[in-house]
Amino acid sequence: MSQPRILTVGSGAIGGIYSWRLSKSSQVTNVCRSNYAIVNENGFSFDSKKFGQDVFKPHNVVRTVSEAADLDKDTPFDYILVTMKALPEIYNVADIIAPAVTPGKTTIVLIQNGLGVEEPIVANFPENPIISIVAYIGTSQVSPGHISMVGNESLVVGTYLRSKVDNTEQKKLFLDLLQKGGVDAVDVDDVERVRWQKLFWNASFSPVCAMTGMNTSEVLNNKEALASVRNVMKDVIMSANAMGYEFDVEEQMHTMVDRTEKTAKDYKPSMQLDFERKQPMEVEVILGTPLREAKAKGLAVPYLEVMHDICSAANAKTLLDKKSQL
Amino acid sequence: MSQPRILTVGSGAIGGIYSWRLSKSSQVTNVCRSNYAIVNENGFSFDSKKFGQDVFKPHNVVRTVSEAADLDKDTPFDYILVTMKALPEIYNVADIIAPAVTPGKTTIVLIQNGLGVEEPIVANFPENPIISIVAYIGTSQVSPGHISMVGNESLVVGTYLRSKVDNTEQKKLFLDLLQKGGVDAVDVDDVERVRWQKLFWNASFSPVCAMTGMNTSEVLNNKEALASVRNVMKDVIMSANAMGYEFDVEEQMHTMVDRTEKTAKDYKPSMQLDFERKQPMEVEVILGTPLREAKAKGLAVPYLEVMHDICSAANAKTLLDKKSQL
């Protein structure tokens, strides 16, 4: 059997790392934007304790999804791996990947933050299998094409229960491809629960760090900052429970704060880095979706609400300022 | 009768303007810090539509309150006018003015933002009359000693009901001194009510502008920013009502938003300017005191709480960064 064809859309740090690992057993094409010239010429270079130092040249490097679709028109992509920032307030991922999706054939794999990222995919490609992945990894693109990765990584590879199409076979194969690349990938039947749990941290620490300018350790050492982390986190846990999950509020809060103290010293969440770089933050998938889900269930979540609203407005301000510079 | 002796502590825009107006009928000494050299040499210069263009040379310019106290030891100051930023989290105004306060004699006049600014004064100088003033004015020190003032101004000159000392006579005289200087000063018996009402705006628009980076017009045009303004404002109005006032929540919210649309276009509140300049914001007197008052009454004010907590942490971060630069 020939190697699976994979298209990676979003070739930053996450997209680079997993393209590289999948390339051990697959033919990977990368859509690159700002790093196109470098990656097309030299490939990606990596510095990782877990995976080593290496250079990876993709099978193809292209500038757009349409260009990828034109490469070998008769052979559909088996997988499209989406590793773009999740910004439904700015673009629709479904529109971006559409040219390379073969209905009923291509499996769409999302490695994205937040909640609700599968919705536009299922709505636009109801006949395609979907694999929804939550990543736990510390990595960044330190300069175009150069990717640094600290510590370990793991992927929770899941089923999105609101999808109409079974993904059992495709998920099994994809797990196998990941594991051949040395990735720590585990299989779950309901990825939504994992996404909620990751939000307990990401919807509380991230916006508090972004708004106050404090890193995780500074937040932990400041009574008021930690109070807002806990208040927002409590709202998010209660929202998850309103959706039918059964998380113990105090236990989850304790675990999240405790783990941050032990493993995330002086850390700046991606939302904070985005804000400092005057890039849009992933507000809707991290704060907006849980807020809407809670409100739909009639739950009052005032701490989450005000945090969503000011971060959303801060994003709008970033866009206003960019426009005024044009 | 000789002219009253007035000492102004805090010689920025507000301190400069009202020292100038009071100098028409009083002998004014100014404590200057960053603008000492310029003001000592040339006085303050003003550019105001209401009061005209002028230069004002204070009777004395000093660097510290102690220096002022040494000027004419046998004649107490009749009034100490405090126009410093209200930052109880950083300094205690009572300690700063102490060298120039003659017990039982000097009247202490506060032109400061927020709620609770009188508390440390009453605690430290229980025998001295106190006059508490709320200012409505748009003015700034554009360069050291040079003060620009737009539009009109007005002062609400009040009695602080928790004071143990009657201020009737001193307030009447001080109103007269202000009015001789052309100031639009009105007399009220309970200044606390006016302070609360000013907070409806200042505790909602100001932190939302500061955290989002939006000016007032941008906030009014953004659904989420305006939603957080309204949510926080509602909490503050309910807090005022819990303290015994009777404000109509919807009417106040409508008035505040409507007035902002009409009279505060593209305006940046002082809290926002402080944040942008990496100066401490007046968080405690604007957000902290109403939060504590509400909590003491058993009222839940989650929107106000989270806004207080992140602004307080942002202030702490400003101080951390300043320390690390030393």
UniProtKB/TrEMBL annotation, chains A, B:
Source domain of life: Eukaryota
Oxidoreductase keyword on record: yes
InterPro entries: 6-PGluconate_DH-like_C_sf, 6PGD_dom2, ApbA, KPA_reductase, KPR-Related, KPR_N, NAD(P)-bd_dom_sf
Domain Ketopantoate reductase N-terminal intervals: 6-160
Organism of origin: Absidia repens
Entry coiled-coil feature ranges: none
Segments forming domain Ketopantoate reductase C-terminal: 190-312
Name the record gives this protein: 2-dehydropantoate 2-reductase
